[in-house]
From TrEMBL:
InterPro entries: COMT-like, COMT_C, COMT_dimerisation, ITPase-like_fam, Maf-like, SAM-dependent_MTases_sf, WH-like_DNA-bd_sf, WH_DNA-bd_sf. Residues 231-265, 280-289 have a biased composition (Polar residues). Homodimer. It comes from the Eukaryota. GO terms for biological process: methylation. Residues 327-408 form the O-methyltransferase dimerisation domain. It comes from Labrus bergylta (ballan wrasse). Residues 231-293 are annotated as: Disordered. This is Acetylserotonin O-methyltransferase-like. Pfam families: Dimerisation, Maf, Methyltransf_2. Its cofactor is a divalent metal cation. Residues 431-638 form the O-methyltransferase C-terminal domain. Gene3D superfamilies: 3.90.950.10, Vaccinia Virus protein VP39, Winged helix-like DNA-binding domain superfamily/Winged helix DNA-binding domain.
Length: 658
């Protein structure tokens, strides 16, 4: 049922929500809107001091989120959405802008600053309308607005604050609270639109749609202003101004803006560097038609033809940024192999214990040629893994960068050493047969290692102690790096017993028990794995983790309230995923849940798409989209699904047995 007739205007359009926020998705889905979710990669790092008012910051961030997705869809997906919606929610108190807390202490800082006070919640919304123009290009119109809601918190005691923080709820929410859930208990009153606090001002949005689609169609048909994003003519991007609508008088809490990123001829755009990054940033001096002027980052939208081709001017040669991007892509495998080699030869461990060694000394220690070592060290410096310092002797000495110290030492808490060794010894040979993998649609263990993979893990990994240990170390390192983000993605306070299916060394399980004092976790994995799990038991941790050996396709699953499937489903084809989910569903009572941690294919981020190729070459599965997981889960009686893009390697997704 569609209550609001404007929502139905979008029924046959490709509507894209540029947001990973599950609350925004719920609000719009509940309103009857059909849309695709393409989370924005825009990093929320605009300089707040450049904005006179906090809502200007929220609106600008919303615009950048939406524009980044519009641009990416044209470039990568080669499809033109009709409308892209971006939003950004902030909380303001005592002239501070509060976004999502980075950790528990940050959440404490935020919540204690809100205690006993009234604060404002602003959600900035940007609507990007995409139109094909008569020159076979895409024009954009940008409409933005914001909504303010005032919220007053009760006085919060220390114990209440910490209990709330430890529930995990604050972590992905602006201001560190969720008014729609436990956070509602902290609230004395709300003045204004409640959904605006939750993350999306639905009422104001519908009013805007009404203006766009019902009242001002003629003004939208006005010829759009286009602006060249480069003054030297090397690139002509089309960014049209939005048409002028006659909007009703705003209430004190409801505000709209048009053309804040107007394409007025006064816009000055200077390209600065490559547009390869998510933001594809160009410096834009925004000459706004509304209250503020600000220098901010925006995305240069490419001019596309309807066939998805970039328009290239006849007289312009290849652009420097494009060539650089191509070079980076072609060199990608060399960079990976340089990293794998330096890691395998223990260069980073060596330089950690003896920083400042010269190439000759390093060559001796790693038992390698001087020439080869010099080349490898220089490559590592250029890749940001090592730093070199000139000495008076002109012989450089080397030390680890912070990146190497954090991730490349074999004993660092977030060491990726184990995973890198697996990439080097297993993934690399498999990828050298990628062409066959693509042609045949199957893994390449046979060609790469002479191993038939009838019983996949047994035949390709667990047949040999050394290979098994390497694989377990790889899984262990990834689980340690991703575990906390997955464990704290959702409020798990209603669960007591967890079963981590295929939980390998227990690294993820330990993160769950650490983050949730009330949980105990059973790791369920093959006997060959459980046999060796004690090698990975962490010291100095309270252990509420136990191990049960079994095959999750055959044996009884341990009873639990919550089942974790972290990097499991991507190993298997749909038929096998179906068997496993049916077995889990049979073991679940209503109210039990499944937490899936995978990299979701939505937004076609390179990490996810390449990981999908990896699954093709290495296993029997693939990565999947949120929608595919939602559909699979609902087939097995699960619903009320929430999704969190953790910003880590894995996204998380929880579904409740109905
Ligand atoms: C105050 C409040 C906020 N939120 C959530 O806080 C996030 C804000 O962050 P954002 O940067 O605007 O969005 P995001 O989650 O990072 O998603 P994206 O749009 O992809 O940037 C959004 O989720 C909102 O629902 C609640 O769920 N309840 C509340 O009471």
């Amino acid at each position: 049922m569609v209550l609001n007739p404007v929502i139905s205007k979008l029924a046959n359009k490709l509507v894209v929500l540029a947001s990973a926020s599950p609350r925004r998705q719920d609000i719009l889905r509940n309103a009857g809107l059909k849309f695709e979710v393409v989370p924005s990669w825009f990093k929320e790092t605009l300089d707040k001091s450049l904005f006179k008012e906090p809502h200007e910051y929220a609106v600008e961030t919303a615009k950048q989120k939406a524009l980044e997705v519009a641009r990416r869809m044209l470039l990568k997906h080669l499809k033109t959405p009709d409308i892209v919606i971006g939003a950004d929610t902030i909380v303001t108190v005592d002239s501070m802008i509060l976004e999502k807390p980075v950790d528990k202490n940050d959440a404490y800082r935020m919540l204690s600053s809100l205690s006993g006070k009234e604060h404002s919640v602003y959600t900035g919304v940007a609507i990007v309308l995409c139109h094909d123009n008569e020159n076979d290009e895409v024009d954009y119109q940008l409409i933005d607005f914001y909504e303010e809601t005032k919220v007053k918190f009760a006085d919060l005691s220390e114990s209440m604050l910490w209990e709330y923080i430890n529930s995990g709820e604050p972590m992905d929410k602006a201001g560190g609270y969720g008014i729609q859930a436990l956070g509602g208990m902290l609230v004395e009153y709300v003045h204004g639109d409640f959904l605006n606090v939750v993350g999306f001002p639905l009422n104001h949005f519908c009013k805007q749609l009404d203006l766009i689609y019902n009242r001002s169609t003629s003004s939208l048909d006005e010829k759009s202003l286009s602006v060249s994003l480069s003054e030297n003519g090397t690139e002509s991007n089309s960014l049209s101004s939005s048409a002028k609508h006659n909007l009703p008088n705003s209430s004190s809490q409801t505000h709209h803006n048009q053309n804040t990123l107007s394409a007025s001829p006064l816009n000055k755009v200077k390209r600065t560097g490559s547009d390869r990054e998510a933001g594809g940033s160009s410096q834009v001096l925004v000459n706004s038609s509304s209250e503020h002027k600000a220098t901010c980052k925006t995305t240069a939208l490419p001019q596309m033809t309807n066939r998805g081709q970039l328009t290239v001017h006849a007289d312009s040669g290849p652009k420097k940024e494009d060539l650089q991007r191509m070079m980076e892509l072609m060199d990608g495998f060399k960079a990976s192999k340089a990293l794998f080699t330096a890691s395998k030869m223990c260069v980073f461990d060596l330089l950690q214990s003896r920083p400042g060694l010269e190439a000759e000394q390093i060559a001796q220690e790693i038992k390698a040629s001087l020439k080869g070592t010099q080349c490898l060290l220089e490559a590592c410096v250029s890749l940001g893994l090592l730093r070199s310092k000139e000495q008076t002797s002109h012989k450089p000495m080397y030390e680890n960068t912070d990146l190497a110290t954090r991730f490349l030492l074999s004993d660092a808490p977030f060491s990726l050493h184990g995973y890198i060794q697996h990439c080097n010894s297993t993934v690399w040979p498999l990828f050298s047969h990628l062409e066959s993998a693509v042609q045949e649609g199957t893994n390449q263990h046979d060609k790469a290692f002479g191993k038939k993979s009838k019983d996949m893990f047994q035949d390709t990994v667990y047949y040999d102690r050394e290979v098994k240990l390497r694989f377990m170390k790889a899984m262990h390192s990834i689980a340690k790096v991703t575990g906390k983000a997955v464990a704290t993605a959702f409020d798990l306070s209603s669960f007591k017993t967890v079963c981590d299916i295929g939980g390998c060394t227990g690294a993820m399980a330990y993160e769950f028990t650490e983050a949730h004092p009330g949980l105990s976790v059973t790791v369920f994995d093959l006997p060959a794995v459980v046999d060796m799990s004690e090698h990975f038991t962490p010291q100095h941790r309270e252990h509420r983790v136990s191990f049960v050996a079994g095959d999750f396709f055959k044996d009884d699953l341990p009873k639990a309230d919550l089942y974790i499937l972290a990097r499991i489903l991507h190993d298997w084809p749909d038929e096998k995923v179906d068997i496993l989910l049916k077995r889990i569903s049979d073991a679940c009572r209503p109210g039990c849940a499944v937490l899936i941690a995978e990299t979701m294919l939505d937004g076609l981020r390179p990490h996810s798409t390449l990981q999908s190729l990896n699954m093709l070459a290495q296993a029997e599965g693939k990565e999947r989209t949120q929608r595919q997981y939602v559909d699979m889960m609902s087939t097995h009686g699960f619903g009320d699904t929430r999704f969190v893009q953790t910003g880590n390697f894995l996204d998380a997704f929880i579904s409740i047995k109905l």
